[in-house]
Amino acid sequence: MKRRLLLLLPLVGFLVLGAFLYMGLSINPFDRDSALMAREFPAFELTTLEDPERVVDASLLEGEVTLVNVWGEWCPTCKQEMPQLLDLAERGVRLVGVDYKDTREKGREFLAEFGNPFEVNIFDPEGSLGFDLGVYGAPETFLVDREGIIRYHHTGYIRPEDVRETILPEVERWR
Amino acid sequence: MALITRLLLCLLLWLPALGQAAVEVREFDDPVTEQRYRDLTATLRCPKCENQAIGDSDSPIAGDMRERVYLQLQDGRSDKEILDFMVNRFGDYVLYNPRLEGRTLLLWGLPAGLVLLGAVVVVFMVRVRRRTSARDLSAEERARLDALIKRERTE
């Protein structure tokens, strides 16, 4: 009898493997963590969208918990997520934008049309800061703590419920 | 008329060349660097598109990554430095060949482990079977066997 049960072993193995692979089907490949988590915000030296004369660097993000949002005029999802960002700004969260692979003109038009929740916008026409942040598509959002360390990362669209359920609690956590 | 058809055919032959225009033409000083570029862009996975190497992808980020690989090769960086540079930004996800380290031990070890387990099972089964077949004959069986052999001989 014991030996008979042993014959079921391959079937059990197959079922375990099947369950494992089935679970894999429902994993969202874009849910993976940023490689920069718990690391310093990458160094950069870029002008602002507002003022081509003003050069800013990573010290811009120190001293206060800041939400850095990477956007671009060419990115439709960024337009959809602006109301959520405006809501966050209204709740007192400090936002800094990165205008990614854009022209100054178009970036300004975008803000004029969809509102500007950002204290300042870093102008990144070549996408060099975006590259160092590991951004592979806009929008992407990073939470940077007071010391300039990246603490949270959100890839893609921020839904209104994401503001309440994840982003605001994360901001509170690092304040 | 025949001339026109021929000219049109010639034009058609140009189509594949036009299609390739989307991927940049790179110039290399030596064939070794060119081969390294090809290998690196084939082994780095595009972070935006799930199952394409950056060398195959039209995604803007894949283009940016190819550019960085090219520039760093020109700078004389080693393959490992270039891969580290990418992993630092985009994570292990971009490596088609995951590195052998603590976290990936199971990934690399499981296939070898399973083969080993299979070998152990086969050896075990062969031994069990050999033992049952090598069992001594009972007195009755031996008598029957002797009788059979004797009959064979006398015939």
From TrEMBL, chain A:
Membrane topology, as annotated: Single-pass membrane protein
The protein's name: DsbE family thiol:disulfide interchange protein
InterPro entries listed in its UniProt record: Periplasmic_diS_OxRdtase_DsbE, Redoxin, Thioredoxin-like_sf, Thioredoxin_CS, Thioredoxin_domain, Thioredoxin_ResA/DsbE_sf
Pfam family, one: Redoxin
Annotated Thioredoxin domain residues: 35-172
Keyword Disulfide bond included in the entry's annotation: yes
Species whose genome carries this gene: Halomonas gemina
Domain of life: Bacteria
Compartments reported by the entry: Cell inner membrane
Record flagged with keyword Nucleus: no
CDD domains, alphabetized: TlpA_like_DsbE
Record family assignment: Belongs to the thioredoxin family. DsbE subfamily.
Keywords assigned by UniProt, alphabetized: Cytochrome c-type biogenesis, Disulfide bond, Redox-active center
UniProtKB/TrEMBL annotation, chain B:
InterPro entries for this protein: C-type_cytochrome_biogenesis (IPR051263), CcmH/CycL/Ccl2/NrfF_N (IPR005616), CcmH/CycL/NrfF/Ccl2_sf (IPR038297)
Pfam families: CcmH
The protein, known as: Cytochrome c-type biogenesis protein
Keywords tagged on the record: Cytochrome c-type biogenesis, Heme, Iron, Membrane, Metal-binding, Signal, Transmembrane, Transmembrane helix
Family: Belongs to the CcmH/CycL/Ccl2/NrfF family.
UniProt cross-references to PANTHER family, sorted A to Z: CYTOCHROME C-TYPE BIOGENESIS PROTEIN CCMH
Coiled coil (residue ranges): none
Domain of life according to the entry: Bacteria
Chain ranges of the CcmH/CycL/Ccl2/NrfF N-terminal domain: 10-148
Residues spanning the signal sequence: 1-21
